[in-house]
Amino acid sequence: MDSSSAGQEDDRERRGISERASLDKRALRRSFLDNLLYVQGKFPRLATKNDYYLALAHTVRDRLMQRWISTAAAYTTQCSRTVCYLSAEFLMGPHLGNNLINLGIYDVAAEVVGELGLDLEDLLYQEEEPGLGNGGLGRLAACFIDSLATLEVPALGYGIRYEYGIFHQTLSDGWQVEKTDKWLRFGNPWELARPEWAVEIKFGGHTEQYTDEHQRLRVRWVAARIVNGVPYDTPILGYHVNTANTLRLWKAEAPESFDFGQFNRGDYAGAVTQKIVSENLSKVLYPNDEQEAGKELRLQQQFFFVSCSLQDMLRILQIQRIPVEKFHEKFAVQLNDTHPSIGVAELMRLLVDEQLLAWDTAWDITCKSFGYTNHTLMPEALERWSLPLFQRVLPRHLEIIYEINARFLDQVRIRFFGDEARIARLSLIEEQGPRYVRMANLACVGSHAINGVADLHTELLKQDVLKDFYELCPEKFSNKTNGVTPRRWIVLANPRLTSLITETLGDGWIRDLDLLRGLESHIDDAAFVQRWQAVKRANKADLATHIERRLQISIDPDSLFDVQVKRIHEYKRQHLAALHIVALYCRIKANPNIEMVPRTFIFGGKAAPGYHMAKLMIKLITAIGDVVNFDPDVRGRLKVAFLPNFSVTNGQRIYPAADLSEQISTAGKEASGTGNMKFQMNGALTIGTMDGANIEIMEEVGKENFFQFGLLTPEVYAWQARGYRPQECYERSPALREVIDLIGSGYFARGDSSVFKPLIDVLLRYDPYFLLADFDSYVACQDEVSAVYKDKHRWARMAILNSARSGKFSSDRTIRQYCSEIWNVDKVPVRLLSQEDVEA
Ligand code: F58
């Protein structure tokens, strides 16, 4: 083809695209207005912002349906091997923006609503975020289902449709106050109820033995109570593919027949109570983070969603005419921590008691089906259920667990002859003192694969938390370092950066984040670096405006934005950052003219409602802000803002505006962290300990582009073994002494020295998370941060390198590893069915 005809071809193609685009745009506008009329029953002059949001949501949902049906059809006809991701939490965040991006119609939608005098961002903020998770673990599940869809892997996410998600946090006089999260108040346009696939879930009662027609001894579970599980499905669209997988969340309802029985006997109030008790099951998400609640309702929730999901898988097998013996060939079932680990016993019950398989066959299927991901090194977070409680709720499962345990310990006894201590540690039942069922042990025994979520974490599992299981079956263990989805955490959250990168590299990086390496060759391009700085400056100005509106604190967008957002916990050490702020404040008070890089400290995060020390940490931060922000000596060089109600939505405003990412947990405590990755992608530099995935981030970006400080894990262990005396650190460091004394004096509490006494006492006496040991190292490292920040050009180059080298931390990489190393699943590309295909 000569160049002129190639040019004509190009031209025709371009015209074709622009014609299609304008058609798309007209169609989008038509269906937006139709939905406003037919779904919301409003015409533009009467419509509220929420009406417009819902009209747009339905417009997008209509476009998802064809992909969703085509995906279901492809999986059903091909009987595809399917990942089932079992998680008590899915912290999805708002759907509309993400779906617009994945459909590739974000910009068109912005134009359409713009022409009607509306602002797309404004409409996006109307969506109540489904906050069905506490933090990292729930958000990881959300990133994973995004990546599974984008990689075209057949997958179902199974969880609970909590009526109340994670509480809404407000602050009153600097103290956290919790408000219920009524996220379903205005309806949820993204879900479809599927009552036709409801299942029955049994609770309590007793078991009976009987002989079947082949004279075999069998067990029947006679339950005291039955609850219905109704699935609510949400389509999860991949990025620029036809795949739309399903997130299936279960709602608990009272079975009709049950109410009526009592109603007919005249016990109307009893019937209603029964209904309320049943519906309580999926009422509320437990807000505990890294601390086991041990509540009966929580065990009921876990069993409820796991039994619903496993029964649903059996239904799918039946539809596809796959024999139950091939369960493990059809499904790879992943346990997101131990919350769904009762599934091991429940699958055994379904296979043995209901499908009538032999025990050994059932056990083989079970072990081949399950994989178990551990997310914590904190001993207090390891789930155990007291035996009497477990027996009351799940009598049949306790019998099954005893049988699993007896067979398992028989093997262990042969392998480790005479090692009774080891046998006691491996047992599924804790026998010293009050007896407990150990859920991590159940998960380990019933799974063919066990993984940690960062290199260090997996090593510590092998050496410590799960040492006995590692010594028994080393081949089951592997590492899968966490990742996050670049679609939400760059494309949606940071449109300015997205445009800059796409103009520089094309848009391939959105599906293949390793391509960001291409940015490295631009760090000497002055124009590029300048644009990079302008992007960050604009994001910071946006966040400054937001903070000023919310908190009435003025913020200088040219100050260093030093950010720590995550759940509030002593091991995450937000109070170490607070000590640093006070140290800087003391320097200013001692020498008001001291030269100092202006910093804005931004905090966000929720404390578990019953975790008093975490709540006191929030109070400390806000109290320091109340003094520092208004002390005239400070002259704006320090600002402290605690942004209430940290959530996915707020995260999307915060990560893109950060200069410095605080990842300062005690070494050996944070399993991985995922916020660290979101900051890095968005071009923040990290100040961090050698903990969790920080280590891998430093490996990727290079030591010279990372601010490292603090004790290493073996050093923490050594200090612990030696007998750590925090008082000595206090006495040795004048700066630390000044800070502790100032807080202890009540200076930040209007002279009331009792307010922060519990916190100061813990630090001086026990300091279980080594704040005082790490204080000097942290402050010195922060001084280096300030020194580097003065050189804006150097900082920008380091920031660009951080982004450029963040490819490893895409959840696409993580999911590829799960697919090939644990699940053994392949992608199944989906062909879009036409209207006629669908109707045929
Ligand atoms: C988190 N765990 C880890 N648990 O702390 C974090 O290091 C890791 O990056 C993340 O998992 C993902 O792997 C976590 O978020 C919880 O929220 C549980 C909720 C239910 C009760 C126990 C804690």
From TrEMBL:
UniProt keyword annotations, A-Z: Carbohydrate metabolism, Glycogen metabolism, Glycosyltransferase, Pyridoxal phosphate, Transferase
The keyword Cell wall biogenesis/degradation belongs to this UniProt entry's keyword annotation: no
Modified residues (N6-(pyridoxal phosphate)lysine): 678
UniProt key word Kinase: no
GO BP field: glycogen catabolic process
Cofactor(s) named in the record: pyridoxal 5'-phosphate
EC top class named in words: transferase
Gene3D superfamilies cross-referenced by the UniProt entry: Glycogen Phosphorylase B (3.40.50.2000)
Single GO MF descriptor: glycogen phosphorylase activity
Superkingdom of the organism of origin: Bacteria
Pfam families assigned: Phosphorylase
Annotated catalysed reactions: [(1->4)-alpha-D-glucosyl](n) + phosphate = [(1->4)-alpha-D-glucosyl](n-1) + alpha-D-glucose 1-phosphate
EC id: 2.4.1.1
GO cellular component: cytoplasm
Family: Belongs to the glycogen phosphorylase family.
PANTHER family documented for this protein: GLYCOGEN PHOSPHORYLASE, GLYCOGEN PHOSPHORYLASE, LIVER FORM
Cross-referenced NCBIfam families: P_ylase (TIGR02093)
Function: Phosphorylase is an important allosteric enzyme in carbohydrate metabolism. Enzymes from different sources differ in their regulatory mechanisms and in their natural substrates. However, all known phosphorylases share catalytic and structural properties.
Protein name according to UniProt: Alpha-1,4 glucan phosphorylase
Organism ancestry: Bacteria, Pseudomonadati, Pseudomonadota, Gammaproteobacteria, Nevskiales
